[in-house]
Recover the amino acids of this structure.
């Protein structure tokens, strides 16, 4: 067996080992490629997934349907959904940036700055908890209420007072009555926040990235360069340790899918700060400790998926890491040392709550370049340009899921 096929076998073994027991991988070891997953279709909805992707978990109260997904796409990109009409979900979650916004920290519809970086919504259906850290937020339906109604900071600025106004905006649209009726058949007045949130969640569950060059390689449809293969090997080695936290088909360790048992919610401190020498993180964002009040949870966050990571800069929960190069320098050193005199100064390498999996890794210049080359193979052009994920208001030719015909349909730049 040559080197490339040995590596490929390693990739296949990794995916199977990380909990895809029900499924067998196409192109791995010549076994059956049948999917024994009964959750792959329901009603008029069928997931179109490669063999190594399990069906997403869908709550029983909000089954998938094509009409809901279509409606959800319009609502996700509709600025009329914010109190002042200036912002949609898509303002902060932009398709060409893998559903991030390019900012260090998000800015809401009224100009307030968020303490955190906008997250990519890539394969968001598979996360067992949502946002950078919140063990209590486990459903997309629940999460959407935060940007809609949140006041610390204000994002889309909905309030009990302006909800009737917003619903009336949608009700008086030329197309929404038919779209809501199709998505929620039999309801006399389907215009409600509950239904809006359900439709948006259904749309978000379709944001599946599974066709990067890395994926094609695992399926035997593409090759990786020698450098990308070195990066892949290093990523999965005990030298760089990356695979412990960025693991499995979605490159993170909080994954659940239809039929998942024993869903775990690990969070990790990667040594980004150590302000007081006792492990302190900046006062406005300290991670898991906010929920547990347990000292050792200081600075712990969810490991993000690394799919399409080349497009989601700046990085980490507060957007304080500008580039992948800087990210790899931090990992190589086993944490971030912020020199005296700079904001949040302190030696994160010595953070007492830092994960054991972030030691001084001894990564050389070549190692770091190889890892970045591998991370770039996770970019999925199909996902980034899929018309079914695109802003239907942005272009009259955005076609495939239907062109908006209502007045003011063209909403300009996000
Ligand atoms: C002002 C910018 C902004 C707007 C508008 C916005 N988001 Fe977000 N989104 C963020 C930020 C910032 C985070 C990270 C929040 C955190 O960690 O507390 C986030 C996180 C998320 C997550 C969690 C992703 C994950 O991997 O866990 C989802 C899902 C999400 N947003 C969906 C939405 C939806 C749906 C809407 C519209 C109803 C929306 N967002 C509107 C900025 C925004
Ligand atoms: C102990 C678990 C752990 C290990 C090991 C680990 N990471 Fe991470 N990674 C995380 C967590 C947690 C975050 C988010 C940190 C934060 O926001 O404060 C993160 C963030 C990142 C980001 C930024 C992603 C984004 O969207 O902002 C990149 C890139 C990354 N890791 C790559 C790697 C690479 C490459 C390795 C191996 C050298 C590695 N990680 C090892 C847990 C880990």
């Amino acid at each position: 067996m040559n080197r490339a096929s040995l590596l490929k076998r390693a990739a296949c073994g990794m995916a199977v080992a990380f909990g895809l027991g029900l499924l067998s991988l196409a192109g791995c070891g010549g076994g059956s490629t049948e999917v024994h997953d009964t959750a792959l279709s329901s009603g008029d909805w069928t997931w179109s997934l490669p063999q190594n992707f399990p069906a997403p978990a869908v709550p029983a109260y909000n089954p998938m349907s094509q009409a809901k997904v279509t409606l959800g796409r319009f609502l996700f990109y509709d600025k009329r959904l914010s109190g002042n009409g200036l912002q949609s979900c898509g303002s902060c979650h932009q398709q060409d940036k893998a559903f991030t916004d390019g900012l260090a920290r998000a800015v809401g519809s009224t100009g307030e700055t968020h303490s955190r970086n906008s997250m990519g919504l890539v394969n968001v259906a598979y996360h067992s908890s949502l946002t950078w850290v919140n063990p209590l937020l486990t459903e997309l339906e629940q999460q959407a209420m935060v940007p809609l109604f949140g006041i610390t900071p204000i994002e889309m600025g909905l309030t009990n007072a302006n909800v009737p106004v917003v619903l009336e905006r949608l009700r008086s649209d030329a197309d929404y009555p038919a779209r809501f009726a199709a998505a929620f058949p039999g309801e006399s007045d389907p215009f409600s926040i509950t239904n809006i949130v359900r439709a948006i969640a259904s749309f978000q569950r379709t944001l599946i990235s599974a066709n990067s060059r890395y994926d094609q390689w695992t399926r035997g449809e593409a090759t990786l360069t020698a450098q990308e293969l070195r990066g892949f090997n290093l990523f999965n080695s005990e030298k760089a340790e990356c695979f412990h936290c960025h693991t499995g088909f979605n490159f993170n360790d909080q994954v659940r899918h239809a039929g998942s048992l024993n869903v775990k919610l690990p969070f990790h401190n990667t040594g980004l700060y150590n302000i007081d020498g006792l492990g302190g993180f900046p006062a406005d964002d300290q991670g898991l400790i906010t929920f547990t009040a347990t000292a050792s949870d200081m600075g712990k966050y969810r490991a993000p998926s690394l799919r399409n990571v080349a497009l989601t800069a700046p990085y980490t929960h507060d957007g304080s890491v500008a580039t992948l190069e800087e990210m790899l320098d931090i990992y190589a050193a086993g944490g971030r040392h912020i020199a005296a005199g700079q904001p949040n100064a302190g030696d994160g390498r010595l953070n007492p709550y830092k994960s054991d999996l972030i030691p001084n890794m001894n990564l050389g210049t070549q190692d770091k370049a190889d890892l970045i080359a591998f991370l770039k193979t996770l970019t999925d052009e199909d996902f980034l340009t899929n018309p079914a994920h695109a802003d239907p208001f942005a272009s009259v030719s955005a076609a495939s899921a239907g062109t908006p015909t209502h007045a003011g349909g063209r909403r300009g730049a996000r």
Q: What stands out?
A: The longest strand covers residues 41-42. The chain is about 30% helix and 0% strand. Residues 132, 240-242, 244-246, 268, 270, 272, 301, 303-304, 306, 309, 312, 315-317, 324, 327, 331, 355, 357-358, 371 surround heme C (ligand 2) (CB under 6 Å).
